[in-house]
Predict the 3D structure of the following.
Amino acid sequence: MKPHFKSAKEIKVGVVGYGGAFNMGRMHLQDMQKAGMTPRAVAEPDKARLAVAKQDFPGIQAYASVEAMLAKSDVNLVVLITPHNTHAPLALQCLRAGRHVVCEKPFAITSEQCDAMIAAAQKAGVMLSTYHNRHWDGSILKALEVVRAGTIGDLVRVECHMGAWNKPGDWWRSSKSISGGILYDWGVHVLEYTLQLVNSEIAEVTGFAKRGFWAQQSKWGADTVEDEGYAVVRFKSGAWATLCITNIDANPKRGMVEVTGTKGTFLWEYDSHEIIVRDGDATVVTKGKNPPAQWERYYANIAAHLTKGTPLAITPEWARRPIHILDLADRSAREGRTLAAKYG
Ligand SMILES: NC(=O)c1ccc[n+]([C@@H]2O[C@H](COP(=O)([O-])OP(=O)(O)OC[C@H]3O[C@@H](n4cnc5c(N)ncnc54)[C@H](O)[C@@H]3O)[C@@H](O)[C@H]2O)c1
């Protein structure tokens, strides 16, 4: 794509969704400001949150809906920070209005939604990307360094596990129809780590799901997310990966991600890691803190892409890969069989 702007300042950003759960709208606008872009507008139906946005960024245009923002504002890059089931429809609306779009993770819920978004961006000649900030988490940066150095030998498998004994909260993340399911929130981050590590095409996916344990105690009833979601991914290289996100884990496993190679293991928690390798008859364990995250590289890349034509770090095709795995896992769990991947 040819550069669209002479300078990052010309990139006028509109944020859609200024929610309070993690104050993500504020974080995005601050990070885009650091990358030289101009915060211009916020669209948010919740009046109290819109008031917070106006306080955070005095003079920012405030709209109650994306329709009003697209009709009245000169924003040329829209960032979607809304619940998961709104990503595809809002992205299509903004792309068809000729705006560049950054969509929070997960990119969408189904592979078909990703396809439609990619086609709309191509038709409009605009940029589409997903905010995979955790592409630059310290843990994955360290894991890639260790794997690429050959310290743990040839990569065999990646196991991702996040769980607790945990009644789903009242928030929208606990609704299957809004969130996509229990695997869609953190699952998409750890799958994106996995895809960086495995570096091979996806061959097939098998999914499993346990439902109904928490549903009666949840405000979402039958629409409550699965108690546990589980996916097994077979890669064309012969490596495999597992993903388990669970709310029924009385005995939570150690480590969030475990990478096993022919010579050793790299095990990580959010802040720390262990490298466990065999040296003859001995097992050598090296423990360390993960290096700092480099999330600022995401918007630095977006600005460089739009002003200089630097290749996008997170292309929509890359962002479709973890969604394809999640979509296949969901369908596989319902159909009780393994499904071949359409997109490697
Ligand atoms: N990348 C990360 O590290 C990270 C961290 C937290 C959240 N997220 C993602 O950010 C997104 C939002 O999550 P959150 O925790 O901020 O949720 P939230 O509930 O705090 O905020 C969502 C906001 O979107 C608004 N909204 C809903 N529909 C809208 C619409 N059609 N137009 C405009 N606004 C609308 C709601 O009023 C709400 O204020 C999700 O995709 C989530 O996965 C990413």
